[in-house]
Amino acid sequence: MPSLVEISHVSKVYPGASAPALDDVSLCVEPGEVLGLVGPNGAGKSTLLGILLGLIPRDSGSVQIAGHDLDRERSALRRVCGLAPQELGFYPSLTVTENLAFYAGVAGLGGELRRQRMQFAIEAVHLQGYLGLRSARLSGGLKRRLNLALSLLHAPRILLLDEPTVGVDTQSRRCILQVIRDLCSQGQTVIYTSHYLDELEQICDRLAVIDQGRILREGRLADLLGEADQTLRIGLRRPPRDAQRSALVNQFGADLVFDAQGLQLRTRQPLEALDSLRAQGLELRTIQYGEGRLEDLLLRLSTAAAAP
Ligand code: ADP
């Protein structure tokens, strides 16, 4: 069976840019799956979402969503996708209800169907108590929830969430995450971008790590965390000298990354690795092993990708 989303060899260079925003990106998303798209600022996440929606032209490659080809069936494809963009997309001077009614109209919904879809979107994000309020007066968290509600109006088969919790307080963030989890448990397919790694760990089935326009790694969250499990994190009393650094780089290659606290080393043999570090005369302050952290994995992937 074909995947719900099939992105094949997509590349994009913005006019005048010296490097591609996307470089031969291929990804699939299966029905009911939550795919997390993670990477630093400028990695290419928003460009990829824009291309999926047909808002940004690509230079090469193909995109199919639910069997619709992006070039031949753009309007059908837009009906299948719902986007909650990073920039809030509603009119601040309209009330919550007026915004929902306006965007329901834009989506071509009328009559009873419009009423039902508005009701669904309001309940999904728990906005019942705020319907008559001017949208400008909503708190940051409620604005994010309204933004999300608008993307749900036309019952998209796939929901694209671009940093849906950016700039909100902890309580609102928790509420938004619960809303997304509820949608996912009802079988909603989601592509989710976020800088917050704990969110991705809570929500996603699968992750694609993107940097400098390339997919560095893609896989099931549990597998990626299992990989991070094999990271030895060492805090050092003082930074290593140049000679110590180069000896260790010679020995461990791309498995070794230096960070502000000391270093991280990917290894299945932590005891032997500790012996090697001590043999170089390093003074170890803290030692940690066997606690998979997404952050470590991402740091290692990005550092390896940036290496000449
Ligand atoms: P992310 O969403 O991961 O932060 P973007 O997709 O916004 O990354 O950006 C990817 C790269 O493309 C960056 O180098 C960014 O500066 C560049 N870029 C994004 N939008 C434009 C644009 N409209 N014109 C030129 N360059 C752009």
Describe what this molecule looks like in 3D.
With 308 residues, this protein is of the alpha/beta class. It is built from eleven helices and 14 strands. The chain has helices at residues 45-52, 74-80, 96-106, 111-124, 140-152, 170-185, 197-203, 221-228, 242-252, 270-279, 294-306, and strands at residues 5-12, 22-29, 34-38, 60-65, 68-69, 81-84, 158-162, 189-193, 206-211, 214-220, 231-236, 256-258, 262-266, 284-289. Strand 12 (256-258) and strand 13 (262-266) form a beta hairpin. The radius of gyration is 23 Å and the shape is elongated. The mean pLDDT is 91. Adenosine-5'-diphosphate (ADP) binds next to helix 1.
In short:
It is built from eleven helices and 14 strands. It has helices at residues 45-52, 74-80, 96-106, 111-124, 140-152, 170-185, 197-203, 221-228, 242-252, 270-279, 294-306; strands spanning 5-12, 22-29, 34-38, 60-65, 68-69, 81-84, 158-162, 189-193, 206-211, 214-220, 231-236, 256-258, 262-266, 284-289. The strands form three sheets. Strands 6-7-8-3-9-10 form a six-stranded mixed sheet, sandwiched between helices.
